Amino acid sequence: MGIKIQPMGDYQTNCYIVDVDGKEFIIDPGVGATSWVKNNVKNPVAILNTHGHFDHVWSNKEVSNLFNIKIYTPRDDNFMLEKDPYNLGMPPSSADYLVKPDEELDFDGIKVKFHFFPGHTPGCSAIEIDDNLFSGDFIFNNSIGRTDFPFSNPNDMKKSIDKILSWDKNIRIYPGHGSSTTLNQERSSLVNWKKYL
């Protein structure tokens, strides 16, 4: 498996291109992502959104139209793609497929699991592909996503932290901002953040 990463826009939101057996998944195409994606893919098959915040989905429609590929978004966050709730002039998009909580998708034998971790947003999810977790704004290196935004929920975030801390495996984490980490490296930080909430 190959992973390409490029921070996009003012918030340096990580856009990922994940290559599995020659099939490429574009995760969170944010502000200005289209040209980088175009120059770095050969066989894109889907756009995967971890959640609906503008800096993660800004280029959804442009990339989807360019490659004629579908957008997969957590069901409870699709309204953010369509409505531009922060009034920032984001080009609207809409999911072709609304992903249900903890749903696993099969792309010609490639398993893609959307782990449901609400709190930062109602549909916030971390996408597992081949034992790698693309965590969006749920977990960062030594931090977690903010819960003071509109549509955020600190109590949901606490439950989500408990949920991932119950995992008995280690996994590499590629967050929506900043550098990669692992679940084992983040366990103590997650416990502390839960107390803070």
From TrEMBL:
The protein's required cofactor(s) are namely: Zn(2+)
- State any single GO MF term: hydrolase activity
Q: Which UniProt keywords apply?
A: Hydrolase, Metal-binding, Zinc
Pfam families under this entry? Lactamase_B
**Can you give the residue ranges of the Metallo-beta-lactamase domain?**
12-177
Is Zinc given among the entry's keywords?
yes
Protein known as: MBL fold metallo-hydrolase
**Native species:** Halarcobacter ebronensis
